[in-house]
Amino acid sequence: MKIKNLLAIAVAFTFLASCANRSKEEKYNHDYLMYATIWYQNSPEMKALYYQGFNIAGERLKQFSKMKTAKPKAVVVDIDETMLNNSPFQAQEIIDNKGYSKEFWNEWCKLAKAEATPGAVEFSKLCDSLGITLFYISNRSVTQFDATLRNLDSLGFAYAKPEYLILKDAESSKKARRAKVTENYEIVLLIGDNLDDFSEIFENRASQWGTKTVDEFKKEFGNRYIILPNPMYGSWEKNIYTKQDTLPAQRDSARRSVLKGFSL
């Protein structure tokens, strides 16, 4: 009996130790996200960059509005971290010490409480005043269509109507959805926080994280492409991890491995 009791106690201690280590690892895993989220939510630099981006976009749009095109002009924008600020979702992940899940993301989207990014609403109204149609192309799921539309409309965004909102059905790539817009419109400007928001040419990041492609199209940034800041997440993360990096400690090690320091 005593031996059984000792074994039971040993198993219990092992289980508790395992839980403690796992909890520590999971909490540690959020450290990388914390500074980025704090910066996004609190720094005036974040606001300044958005104002700068939309100011440039506005000036370019005024120039494009004077150009003659075969089709009516259109602007394509991303939604998350472009027009809507979802940083409370990232912050709650840290506070609750939980990882990303589609279910949790869906709960946040259903609330329709995301705030507008600085300058976004004003830019949408500028599009309207110039007679240039604005399309929202997002990788939010089509199941979040009503909540997303409600969120945009509640903030006073122009073109917050069903016909201008194009969400993800099956493919993450936005190529086909942009092509659908070009059937009837000339896209003169694209705005997003992720390179994939501009063109499918940026989707292949196998070589040097895709930086060579950015160099090749550097003249388009500030011209037809307006990139906005998002240090919290993005397609760039895919280059950090391998399929084997599933545990928090492995992912932390992977992040550290891509840091570029210097030698004395």
From TrEMBL:
Record key words, sorted: Lipoprotein, Signal
InterPro entries: Acid_phosphat_B-like, HAD-like_sf, HAD_sf, Lipo_e_P4
Domain of life of the native organism: Bacteria
CDD domains according to UniProt: HAD_CAP
PROSITE patterns: PROKAR_LIPOPROTEIN
One GO cellular component term noted in the UniProt record for this chain: cell outer membrane
Signal peptide residues on this chain, from the entry's feature table: 1-20
PANTHER family in the cross-refs: ACID PHOSPHATASE-LIKE PROTEIN
Protein name: 5'-nucleotidase, lipoprotein e(P4) family
